[in-house]
Amino acid sequence: MKNSDGVAGYIHSVETFGAVDGPGIRYIVFVQGCPLRCIYCHNPDSWKIKNGKPANSADIAEDIKEYLPFIKNGGVTVSGGEPLFQPEFTADIFRRCKAMGLHTALDTSGAAEFSDALKVLKYTDLVLLDIKAYDAGLYTRITGAAEDKGKNLLDLCEAAAVKVWIRHVVIPEYTSDEKQLNMLAEYLSRYSCIEKVEPLAFHKMGEYKWENAERKYLLSDTAPADEKTMERVREIFRSKGLKL
């Protein structure tokens, strides 16, 4: 990709017919680089930005045009890694998508400063916000980061009236605690920008990538949450008036 008209960045990969990261059929750009080190991450190979493929927002937009007949009723999602780790790159992809009349969705943990998030939100129709944990200590235990900036992003979305879908990964012995879930549900119930909540069962699909990178995978002995646990989680969110 050699277009000099756009913004340079790094990507991990693209998916041209995604169906789970926002409404409808979507073109998904997975950007490279992330400041978090989540213990359940299924793409640890996306952490270091320079390990990605050099890309240009103008070239990506040109490729997206090829799929307009298929995604015109869906849109474009930028995921990661962490899209807000490359705010100018992500914002310019979205700006070009909006010029094509496409719906834009930002799949993020919110790990960014206000100023960087605002650059992207300007062109964002929907935020898929991954809330790691309600408790600050548990957040650090899961992500390795000292501060949860995702809550700041939620405040920005509320102020800007940007629609939000909350995602929350349920990990047995970590985020499956009923007290923590009730506090999280109560907290989320205060926001009018939240359209729905998606509790997601932890999985080990990326475990082999940790092994390939010779990194210790802390959840090797942790079983995914069963359906009984997931229904209990869903009921907690419903009890606070949140839609699933």
Task: Note down, in words, how this protein is organized.
With 244 residues, this protein is of the alpha/beta class. It has a single domain, classed as Aldolase class I (TIM Barrel, Alpha-Beta Barrel), CATH 3.20.20.70. The protein has helices at residues 57-65, 68-71, 87-99, 114-121, 136-143, 150-160, 178-188, 207-212, 227-239; strands at 8-18, 26-31, 53-56, 75-79, 104-108, 126-130, 163-170, 194-201. It has an 8-stranded mixed beta sheet with strand order 3-1-2-4-5-6-7-8. Strand 1 and strand 2 form a beta hairpin. Helix 3 (87-99) packs parallel to helix 4.
Tell me about the biggest sheet?
A: 8 strands, mixed
Q: Roughly what percent helix?
A: 25-40%
Write the H/E string, N to C.
EEEHHEHEHEHHEHEHH
- Low-confidence segments, given as residue ranges, are none
Spatial shape: globular
CATH topology: TIM Barrel
The total number of structural domains is: 1
- The name of the CATH superfamily reads Aldolase class I
Report the CATH architecture.
Alpha-Beta Barrel
Fraction in beta strands: 15-25%
By DSSP (H or I, 4+ residues per run), the number of helices equals 9
CATH class: Alpha Beta
Give the neighbour order of strands across the main sheet.
3-1-2-4-5-6-7-8
Give the radius of gyration: 18 Å
Query: Could you tell me the number of beta strands?
Result: 8
In brief:
The protein is an alpha/beta fold.
Mind sketching the topology for me?
Blueprint: E1 8-18, E2 26-31, E3 53-56, H1 57-65, H2 68-71, E4 75-79, H3 87-99, E5 104-108, H4 114-121, E6 126-130, H5 136-143, H6 150-160, E7 163-170, H7 178-188, E8 194-201, H8 207-212, H9 227-239
Parallel strand pairs: 2-4, 4-5, 5-6, 6-7, 7-8
Antiparallel strand pairs: 1-2, 1-3
